[in-house]
Design a protein that fits this description.
Number of helices: 6
Oligomer: single chain
Shape: flat
Distance between the termini: 72 Å
């Protein structure tokens, strides 16, 4: 009897407990919006990486340095950019509400590299002599030979998708062909001797063989 009463009270109070947990979860979520700026001149810093420490989540500030990210109260945000020192900001737990504005100031970090001095060849003749007598490893020759194989180039041209420029050219060619034969039936390549010649050449090269 006591077990039944405990189960009954648990079922009655479970919605209130779930509602309280859901409210606590919503209260712990916060959206951080802000801007990244230099500490000395208050200049906007674009392309700053903002990561939630210990998690694989983050964002990047835009060209005006503006960013927005959703995190939990108590999380630590790491700001990093090329040429600036890394900064950590811990979101206060006692913040009220689900949104917060932040201005993150970053200090420039100067990195000194070792001096590099480039000396040219004294004369063109010495440069040509060094270029001709350059020792190239055999494996580099093998890589170059494989990269220029006709079968590999045909396979790459067949399976690699075209870029934006290539797709535009194909579309314009189709548009031009459709306008050229507007109002009439376009010719069929089955009666075209040039198309038959190309087909025979492709068949001799083995373009239609299975490449399993």
């Amino acid at each position: 009897m006591h077990k039944k009463l405990i189960i009954l009270f648990s079922l009655l109070f479970m919605p209130f407990l779930l509602r309280a947990q859901l409210k606590a979860f919503k209260d712990s979520i916060i959206q951080i919006s802000g801007i990244t700026m230099t500490a000395d001149s208050l200049r906007a810093i674009p392309a700053v990486s903002i990561l939630v420490k210990g998690q694989n989540r983050g964002t990047i500030s835009n060209s005006q340095g503006v960013f927005s990210i959703v995190a939990f109260k108590g999380d630590t945000l790491t700001f990093s950019a090329v040429g600036f020192r890394k900064k950590d900001y811990r979101i206060p737990v006692e913040l009220v509400g689900n949104s917060y504005s932040l201005i993150q100031l970053m200090t420039e970090d100067t990195l000194y590299l070792a001096e590099t001095v480039i000396h040219p060849y004294p004369t063109r003749r010495e440069f040509e002599k060094m270029f001709v007598n350059m020792d190239i490893p055999n494996d580099m020759y093998e890589v170059a030979r494989k990269n220029n194989e006709q079968a590999k180039l045909r396979a790459m041209a067949r399976y690699i998708p075209v870029d934006g420029g290539g797709a535009y050219n194909v579309f314009m060619q189709k548009q031009q062909q459709s306008l050229y034969y507007a109002g009439q039936t376009p010719p069929q390549n089955i009666f075209n001797p040039l198309a038959w010649a190309q087909f025979i050449e492709s068949w001799k090269r083995g373009d239609f063989k299975r490449k399993d």
